[in-house]
Design a protein that fits this description.
Blueprint lengths: L9 H9 L7 H36 L8 H38 L17 H8 L2 H27 L1 H5 L6 H42 L3 H12 L1 H22 L5 E4 L4 E6 L9 E7 H13 L4 E3 L1 H10 L11 H15 L4
Parallel strand pairs: 1-4
Antiparallel strand pairs: 1-2, 2-3
Helix pairs in contact: 2-3, 2-7, 5-7
Length: 349
């Protein structure tokens, strides 16, 4: 088997991305989500802890709780849970946004239907056992075990440091105990989150390296791809496709134009001007012969005025590219045409 020694081409990378084959580590999402959660908890913690303590005190005291009917029970649950839900809302939103940001930070904006296609080999028990006991499966098991051991050790050390405080909880008032538990939980969680972030960063770079190795090509594959890409027929088809797309985009802009200036039959250019967003009028479409005819037809179908100005049409066609502003030398002539069109429409500029 030929050795894959060549770096992947941009085309190969693009095809892999379209199939959803990108470097992504779930550990990054978990770590960033955990860190965000405990960071937000530190800021909203006192208020939320106060509400938790208040709810607990109300439940323990039983004040104002005549739970003799189902309606009274529902009212009591709503009265107690509403403050907690409102206090937890920023926390939930922050964690959701952190998860989205972590995913986009790794792969960007990516939509791929390949991962949604059913893969029946994944439901085959025999294939599942093979994957479990394969070298990759054992490697993943070793990584997961090491991660659990490291995180467990960090959490244990953090709890040992707070052990004196935890042992005194029974001597504290309810409110003070809730604050103490909150402080311990956020401290341990933040420390675990930082360790997970380090693990996640290492896993992400490992995933990138694995992806890079999987995309590498043999010399023969590289030669074959270059032949395909450099094939004159393929290049011609690509250029034809690009011209077709450009033509469609240009024709879609004609109905939005203010005026079409013609030669009258050989050349047609479409002009658009919006005083609120443009410094000067722009040329949104132009063409000769058949393309000019098609521009006029689209303009007529959509009620865009057509004005014959032979010298101006030729000058615009030669001097201005599609999407460019009209040059200063032609301001006066174009302004006269636009003023004429606006006067016909009864629009005062």
């Amino acid at each position: 088997m030929a050795e894959k020694t060549e770096a992947p081409t941009q085309r190969r990378r693009r095809e892999a991305r379209e199939k959803g084959n990108v470097a992504r580590s779930p550990e990054v999402n978990t770590a960033i989500g955990l860190l965000t959660a405990f960071t937000v908890l530190k800021s909203v913690g006192p208020g939320l802890s106060e509400r938790v303590a208040s709810v607990a005190a109300s439940l323990l005291s039983g004040r104002g709780m005549a739970l003799d009917t189902p309606e009274a029970l529902r009212a009591m649950m709503l009265r107690l849970s509403a403050p907690l839900l409102l206090a937890a809302a920023p926390f939930v939103m922050a964690v959701m946004l952190a998860g989205v940001a972590a995913s986009m930070g790794q792969v960007g904006l990516l939509f791929s239907g390949e991962s949604l296609k059913p893969q029946f080999n994944r439901v085959n028990p025999l294939s599942g056992f093979k994957r479990l006991f394969s070298s990759k499966g054992l490697e993943e098991l070793a990584k997961a075990s090491a991660k659990v051991l490291i995180i467990g050790w960090v959490a244990y050390r953090a709890l040992v440091e707070k052990l004196p405080l935890l042992l005194n909880l029974s001597r504290m008032e309810l409110r003070a105990a809730s604050f103490a538990i909150w402080s311990v939980a956020t401290g341990v969680g933040s420390r675990v989150g930082l360790v997970m972030l380090v693990i996640a960063a290492a896993d992400y770079f490992f995933q990138r390296r694995q992806l890079e190795n999987s995309l590498r090509m043999t010399k023969q594959e590289l030669i074959e791809e270059m032949k395909l890409y450099d094939n004159p027929i393929i290049r011609q088809r690509i250029r034809q496709q690009q011209r077709r797309i450009a033509m469609q985009r240009m024709m879609a802009a004609v109905p939005k134009a203010d005026v079409v200036i013609t030669n009258p039959t050989h050349i047609a250019v479409a002009i658009k001007y919006d005083a609120s967003t443009m410094r000067a009028p722009k040329l949104v479409a132009k063409g000769q012969e058949l393309t000019a005819k098609r521009i006029r037809e689209v303009a007529e179908e959509n009620g865009v005025p057509i004005v014959e100005r032979r010298p101006l049409a030729r000058a615009l066609y030669k001097m201005v590219d599609i999407g460019m502003e009209i040059p200063v030398d032609l301001y006066q002539a174009v302004a006269e045409v636009l003023a004429f069109i606006y006067s016909l429409k009864g629009v005062r500029q």
